[in-house]
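User: Good morning. I'm curious how nicotinamide-adenine-dinucleotide would be positioned relative to this chain. Could you predict the structure with it bound?
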Amino acid sequence: MELKGNDLSLIIERVLKELNERDTKKEVSDGVFDTMDEAIAAAYEAQKVYQEYTLEQREKLISSMKKALMENAMSIANLCVKESGMGRVDHKYLKLKLVAEKTQGTEILRTEAYTGDKGLTLVERGAFGVIGSITPSTNPAATVACNAICMLAGGNTVVFSPHPGAFNSSITTMKVLNKAIREAGGPDNLLTAVAKPSLENTSMLLNDGRIRMLVATGGPGIVKMVLSSGKKAIGAGAGNPPVVVDETADIKKAARDIILGCSFDNNLPCIAEKEALVVGDVYEELIKYMKENRAVYEINDDQADKLVKTVLNQDNKSGKYSINKTFVGKNAKSLLESIGESAPDEIECLIYRTENCHPFVQLELMMPILPIVKTKNFKEALKLAVEDEHGNRHTAIMHSKNIDNLTEMARKIDTTIFVKNAPSYAGIGFGGEGYTTYTIAGPTGEGLTNAVSFTRIRRCTMVDSFRIV
Ligand code: NAD
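Assistant: Good morning! Here's the predicted structure, ligand included:
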């Protein structure tokens, strides 16, 4: 059939329109899908492309993600606090900065080699494929950013399932990262999610065969759920970090460090000091130094009783307490205001002298209230610290100059993170050595997760060759 000039120009016009539409469609693909099935399918297809990427190419994407994170850190921090009503903008910003500066990428993926008379065996770190990452409301942006970097460094793609209470913050972070990936020449949909959160969507994520690994960063419920899924799962669960102070500590520094750690992001971090066990000899001195800090306010029994009735719920039948989520991550001033007390703006932390059985000690409050318990000696402080940690194996802190005491606590408390003579956050690399993460896997043992945690070990053996001696 002969084509006339007119037909030809119509065909060209149509082809150009289609190409243009395809490009436009590509530009708006930000990883957010209407259904979980679509989100998983997109990440699944993207992983097929991404698995061809060299380590150098992965690093290029990660650099771009980190740069974009820094550029958007302040606006994301603002969004997190505005949306969730929890935490502090200045500290959320610092958390995001820490992710950009101290999250490890592909450099941690080291190959092992065994050589001998029989040749060479290589052990390398391969991708799982698509990972389902369930993220918390208490740290909605930094968890997404840090997991995204580590999981992509491991060669995976990710479907996120963020907490509904801070959904927009998590999704905005993900979109910023996807844009950075695209700008660095990477494929679309390395990171995906569903436009609206629902328990059904999370349940689909847990059960879909295309998801090869699940990572839950949150409370005990969701950790248990992923561990029961039948898939390879990493559980990063709750903590209730005790801080012990013995008579040999630099008490002035201990007072400062404990308040800094306890009030960081209004005590939202799972690693933050949640209760202090202090040896009797230095109890008054520690509290005296704490109160010299204008950010500290000591509450009395009456105020504490009112706070218990306000920030906790009590079950009528069992009498057991649980936290009232309305007050999680609220600042110290508003906690005081909730019981009809006024306080100056600079108040950041409420301290309370109490017994070890008090619910403020026993519950993971995630509010800037520090219960302080007096103990007879170090042995008793350590015994109570172990009880209060509830076997979470999460985080503990100690202030001491006695090497034997420090060593004994490190061994007996058996936590994933143990910080000596610093605020708790030194344990995730903020003012301390080492890389950072916001997915601290105590229950499943990966510890402070990095790219290695999100890889599978693969072995390749060549017999009788490639040995050079
Ligand atoms: P959460 O357990 O309420 O929620 C965590 C995630 O699990 C959210 O995405 C939520 O939507 C999902 N989820 C919870 N229950 C679910 C269910 N029944 N079905 C489907 N999905 C469900 O936790 P949170 O309040 O957002 O975060 C605070 C908790 O997380 C604290 O206990 C804190 O210690 C812990 N945390 C731990 C780490 C760590 O690295 N270990 C880091 C941050 C927070």
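The mean pLDDT is 95. The CA atoms of residues 123 and 336 lie 57 Å apart.
Let me know if you'd like a different ligand tried.
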